[in-house]
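re: ur question from earlier - yeah i can do the single chain one, its not a big deal. heres the input i used so u can compare w yours
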Amino acid sequence: MVELEVHNEAGEVTGTVAFDETVLGDRIRPRLLHQVVVSYMAARRQGTASAKTKAECAGSGRKPWRQKHTGRARAGMRRSPLWRGGGVIFPPKPRDFRQGITRSMRRQALRSALLSKFRDNQVTVIEATAFDEPKTKRLATMLRALGIHGSCLIALAGHDPIFHKSSRNIPRLGVAPVKHLNALEVLAHDRLVLPREVVETLGDILAAAPGTRKARSGRRSGSPGGPARPNGRGRSGRGAKARAEGTPR
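and the output i got, formated as tokens:
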């Protein structure tokens, strides 16, 4: 359990908030972080680089001159990779650079990235801030008062379009809902700014994020309260009705 100072817009300390680091895991996993970050960066690649082989280049396949007794080097075709205008040896071709990582790896990498920020004292906690209209100057003043001069990521409790518009013109500043964070986005910024309500419920927010086991429970077909299973196997299906009437199916 650690005690974090809570600041207001003027940068003044208004209190403290307790945070249990164990909700993010017991240790930082650098190898997992590297693997997941590389997969995120690889998925950003367009993969459209392309060049032609000697079979795809325009030009004749006829032998330019005979093999011997000319004083020149041997040549088989004008499309040779050794000639200007010829093909490329092992050229790049359009491909998909995405790397497969599991959902549990992404979740664990995010927890390790957040844990590293807390252990390196790179987390700033602020009071809940509401913007009635987009004001870039107000947000920039708040960041200066908090002593943040490098790159910064503000993780909000939910989507706030007005706050997002206020941050668009500030360089090296990212704003995103906490349930949409990923390991690459957290590690790419020097500071992490969290509202007090996010720190108090961070464990529950991560557990209920899309794709987690807790978020998927209740949506399964066989779970209580879920829809009836198809093919007449549910309680309201033909099989149950036939058993109630005592007739063979």
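Residues 221-230 have pLDDT under 50 and may be disordered. not sure if urs matches, ping me
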